[in-house]
Amino acid sequence: TVCGIKLPEGLKESDKLPEPIYTPSTKAEIGDHDENISYEQSVKYLEDRFPGKGEEYASKLRDYTIALYKKCADYALTKGIIIADTKFEFGLDEDGNIVIGDEMLTPDSSRFWPAEGYEAGHSQPSFDKQFARDWLKANEGHNWTLPQDIVDKTIDKYLQGYELLTGKKLEI
Prior knowledge:
Number of helices: 4
CATH architecture: 2-Layer Sandwich
Shape: globular
Order of helices and strands: EEHHEEEEHH
Oligomer: single chain
CATH class: Alpha Beta
Helix content: 25-40%
Largest sheet: 2 strands, antiparallel
CATH superfamily: ATP-grasp fold, B domain
Distance between the termini: 42 Å
Number of strands: 6
């Protein structure tokens, strides 16, 4: 299960789910990790902060999140990119309307995989920060300064994703 949602039996690494799932989390303090919670916990969390609005806000957040993901994932697929997962951060404006609260659909908030060559059952190459994360994990306990070649390869991956999605070159 993920965030209280039972997943289908027999899933392999990198398998596509039958439908996108909504996986809410709480926003952690700087330096801490966000905490994944179930939909029901999100209702209570929101109700505690916005009495009388918990269910309304939770259902809107779920609906907005899934609609945004589907629309963007469908578009990205036409450009040769699978959006394996992403996160959206929301807030409220002064009138209580839900608004986007942070960057969305960037290599820092999403996992972008090339559609070409995709095959479930193993990890996928990506156009995101996973390359740098993998290096840091492999070098845990060592110097945390990324070598220039790792920085350059990460930049190249971001640029590849950008160019596929937009059809434009970005000169840096």
